[in-house]
From TrEMBL:
Species of origin: Caulifigura coniformis
Enzyme class: oxidoreductase
Name of this protein: 1-deoxy-11-beta-hydroxypentalenate dehydrogenase
InterPro entries membership: KR_dom (IPR057326), NAD(P)-bd_dom_sf (IPR036291), Sc_DH/Rdtase_CS (IPR020904), SDR_fam (IPR002347)
E.C. designation(s): 1.1.1.340
Residue intervals of the Ketoreductase domain: 6-185
Cited Pfam families: adh_short (PF00106)
Signal peptide coordinates: none
GO terms of molecular function: oxidoreductase activity
Matches recorded under PROSITE patterns: ADH_SHORT
Family assignment from sequence similarity: Belongs to the short-chain dehydrogenases/reductases (SDR) family.
Keyword Transport tagged: no
SMART domains: PKS_KR
Swiss-Prot/TrEMBL keywords: Oxidoreductase
Amino acid sequence: MQVAGKVIVVTGGANGIGRALCERFVHDGAKSVIVADLDFELASSAAHELGDPASAIGCNVAIEDQVRELVTLTLAQHGRIDLFCSNAGVTVKGTECTPDHDWQRLWDVNVMSHVYAARAVLPSMLERGEGYLLQTSSAAGILTEVGSAAYSVTKHAAVSFAEWLSIKYRRRGIRVSCLCPAGVQTQFLNDEDTIHQFLATSAVTPEDVAECVVQGLLEERFLLLPHHQVQEFFAFKGEDYDRWLHNFSRIAQKLERMEQKSKKPE
């Protein structure tokens, strides 16, 4: 899919990967780019800086009515949505003992937001016989994130849902891509977190991610991986699952020791 001339919605579009996507889409000649974000003021500022053809809409993607309203307003103003980028996401550190309310919050934002977007935007796309869904998951969705059980589980679910959508609607003109970056140089990376420090050593820029996305859309690839090492780890996982689990557990153990060491008083 060529970005030029397309009507595009990006959730979580006010900063980070979402902001870089919006900037790239405007640069590549999109007809309209809707910067959707929980922080409407920040989204408005981003849209103003991007200039025409960007506009802003406030949206809490964890609330289905707001996602539906986002789609309704966009269709009313622009007549169609060619590409819906379901990009917003959240994380929390923790194990199986992470509080239920945090599990639920990550489930609502990292999984159900994709479901809400599909429910809202697919009818008009299917009626036209074409449309594209870009869903941001994470490398944690095809590998794991040892520092957060809830993040890993919800990102795996996001990949699974994107896969299901691709299989279900491919023959009806709907294309689906799933973006799975590892470390990206945004505020999402916590400098005080040992695991995030590890991810930062190979982190790419949001602009690098946007470049990967544009190329992936052009080729209509399902899995978009801005980090070459993620592709290698994912391939190894499929070749020898048990060995992959063993090796990843060693990494987890090493990171845990590093974290414990960092907490010791000087």
